[in-house]
Amino acid sequence: MAQHEAQQRRPSIHDVASHAGVSAATVSKVLAGVTTVKPENAQRVIDAVELLGYRVDPLASDMRRAKRRIVGAIMPEFESEFFGQMVTELEGLAEQRGYTLVAASSRESEAREKEILARMHDWRVAGVVLAPVRNEHGPAADFMKTNGMTGVLIDRVLSDDAFDTVSADSVAASAEVAKMLVGRGHKHIVIIGLAEGAATVRARLDGFRAQALALDPSVRIDVITSEVSVEPLRTSLRDYFAKGERPTAVYSLLLKGTLVALSEFRRRGWHCPDDISLVGFDDAEWMQVTWPAIAAVVQPVRRIAGEAMSLLFRRIDGAEGPPTARLEPCQVLMRESVGSPGSGPHSGGGDRQQPPLS
Amino acid sequence: MAQHEAQQRRPSIHDVASHAGVSAATVSKVLAGVTTVKPENAQRVIDAVELLGYRVDPLASDMRRAKRRIVGAIMPEFESEFFGQMVTELEGLAEQRGYTLVAASSRESEAREKEILARMHDWRVAGVVLAPVRNEHGPAADFMKTNGMTGVLIDRVLSDDAFDTVSADSVAASAEVAKMLVGRGHKHIVIIGLAEGAATVRARLDGFRAQALALDPSVRIDVITSEVSVEPLRTSLRDYFAKGERPTAVYSLLLKGTLVALSEFRRRGWHCPDDISLVGFDDAEWMQVTWPAIAAVVQPVRRIAGEAMSLLFRRIDGAEGPPTARLEPCQVLMRESVGSPGSGPHSGGGDRQQPPLS
DNA sequence: CACAATGGATAAATCGATTTTTCACTATTG
DNA sequence: CAATAGTGAAAAATCGATTTATCCATTGTG
Residue A214: CB partners within 8 Å, gap ≥ 6? Predict the structure, then answer.
């Protein structure tokens, strides 16, 4: 098998050195771009590198230097478009700077999150981008603090006294959603979400509520949250509807909640937007091809990733100063899932026949 | 800032050794579980480890040993549920064996794929799980061969003469889809897909065609593919419909194609399944909450990942022998998007009002 | 009692780079 | 012409582990 015969040891810096007739130190210098090498010798090194197909072993290289060129990324999951895109972006940005990104998923478990972090600390990563499962006050952030790790917290965070944070401005986005819904005459709205971290959820709720009540003090806003997972949320929403509650709009604070809402609408035979309107936090590709297309808040993934990496490398490069808390603006995509209350077929209006796209 | 004062150097194996009053070699042996250490000394080492909070530096550890405990995973993208789940699974399996998984996305580019592979080779990874952008004959697999890397190819592959392969049995699944559609009376079916790798696409087409024609020799099967990206596919499908073609069912060989089909249905105002049926390769969470729910072929992600890792580690551990080519069975999920031709409203039947879920 | 065998541990070599120190040699200056 | 300054490169130390070779002290045996 070629698989085995080619298993020869790769050339080391010493092989290059002896081929070029210089010392390993000189080779290292040439490769690092140090200018105090005689051009003639530099050329011989370059030739030898070319001839042998030599490439620096990043592991050995990182061994000696103070900061290793590895950064970690910890996401709650890889399965969603949001975190998938996030990892892709982070990977590219790390690469641009000559760093290797090691990504891991905490699978929505704080215990696992801390374990992964410990492992990354073992690797002596230069820094970590952490999207915490709950919020900035979990055990993972604590671990980072007590171990003097450098890092940036993203997504489910507001601000921290030790680390820079970057997240979507979901408060402003929620206010915009409120404007959209109340502006269309909705007077009974239910918000569903997970109580990921008290602060972030509260912020979104407050952002929505403040704007909604400012526009129409008579609007009724119900909130359904679940502490732990999505399934209890489904049950709660089902019970809520079963009680006879008839809100005219649902605002879901998370993607899975949007799915739950849709499936509960199905279960009850409600049509969206005729019977009930829906807006979801987090956009997904499929939301624009279904009928109705689902209105959604789009998070600025690229900006969050870019900002996070830029802050991270600033710290890695030794930047001092108090931590910053950045909020990146979201975009609210109005789509067919939002209508006006009372325009559905049950009240005489509406037509489920979708119009051709323009 | 705590961020900096805690930046103290971590204890090394020598620190542990001096604390325990033994040599570094002894510490290493205790940690490796070698039994030729006096119990008394072993205990002192364990105590010192505990006291100092010592943890082995995997980088330094891998330096000396022949095979590094790192495996790579290269996926075409992270944004889809399929590859997201795949990475999650692979990560867990690598972890179980004490390996670190380094994942990277080739972003559907063969050039990038090869670059990533070269970087992983630089890291001297013990092995790689590669989901090639096109097929098993791309430059990446070549690179692996000529450099004697060990690896397993997954997903868009059939078999290879140098590497083990694992993929979904999309041929059998396609046949099953054919049975489902033809069995319901469809006589004009269009298949859409990317010509990712000639062989895999052809296999799926053939699997479908053979089964369909066996059941009904009069069935007409049109095929629309695009070499490169999804957009040309959209254009082709649009042109196809614009020509006046009126197939009664669409079978999409890829997730993005399913989205394209749905959006083209929308554009023309066609209702699914009344006007046209749809089955897609690759399932996604949203497909069961939309109306209609979309019938889909579910790939056995866990099994593929498990089999790939098991084969990979077998090779890493030195297993010889010719490469194997595994096919894992898919599951075809029948859902509302599949109906019988001619039962739609245009021909008198059908009712777009969905029934409540059971 | 001398010598071999054995258990247990340490010293030293190694992995593949980087960085610091040392050194040889040339060029400048008093 | 000797002392000093300056160049470029080699030698050596280092990073933090693992592994091999070496060594000492017992114990066992003839």
Answer: none
Same domain, B162 and B307: yes
Same domain assignment for residues B224 and B154: no
Query: Most B CBs within 10 Å: which of A113, A282, A290, as the mutation test of the B interface?
Result: A290
Chain A, chain B: beta-carbon pairs less than 8 Å apart: 176
Pair A205, A237: CB distance under 8 Å: no
Point out the residue among B77, B88, B91 whose CB comes nearest to the CB of A79.
Answer: B88
**At A168, is the secondary structure helix, strand, or coil?**
strand
Q: Which residues touch strand D (CB under 7 A)?
A: A 21-26, 36-38, 40-41, 63-64; B 9-14, 24-25, 27-29, 31-32, 55-57, 60-61, 63-65
Residue B227 is part of which domain span?
Answer: 170-299+333-342
Q: For B333, list phi and psi in degrees, rounded to 5.
A: -95, 110
Residues of B in contact with A104 (CB under 8 A): 91, 101
Taking only the tens place, the pLDDT of each residue in B50-100 is: 999 999 999 999 999 989 999 999 999 999 999 999 999 999 999 999 999
Same domain, B113 and B229: no
Residue B225 shares a structural domain with residue B144:
no
Strand, coil or helix: what is B45?
Answer: helix
Closest Cα in chain A to B90: A104
In a domain, B356, yes or no: no
Query: Quick check: A269 contacting B, CB < 8 Å?
Result: yes
Task: Please state the domain count of chain B.
Answer: 3
In a domain? residue A64: no
Over the stretch A185-210, which tens digit does the pLDDT of each residue have? 999 999 999 987 778 888 999 999 99
- What burial letters (b/e) apply to B176-208, b meaning 16+ CB within 10 Å? bbbbbbbebebbebbbbbbbbbeebbebbbebb
Residue B91 is part of a domain; what is its CATH number?
3.40.50.2300
Residues B255 and B146 in one domain: no
Say if B15 is an interface residue toward chain A (CB within 8 Å): no
A283 occurs within a structural domain: yes
Say if A358 falls within a structural domain: no
d(C-alpha B246, C-alpha B262), whole Å: 15
Residues B192 and B271 in one domain: yes
Claim to verify: residue B162 and residue B306 sit in the same structural domain: yes
Residues with pLDDT less than 70, chain A: 1-8, 343-358
Task: Say whether B354 and A266 touch across the interface (CB within 8 A).
Answer: yes
The answer to whether A1 contacts B284, with C-beta atoms less than 8 Å apart, is: no
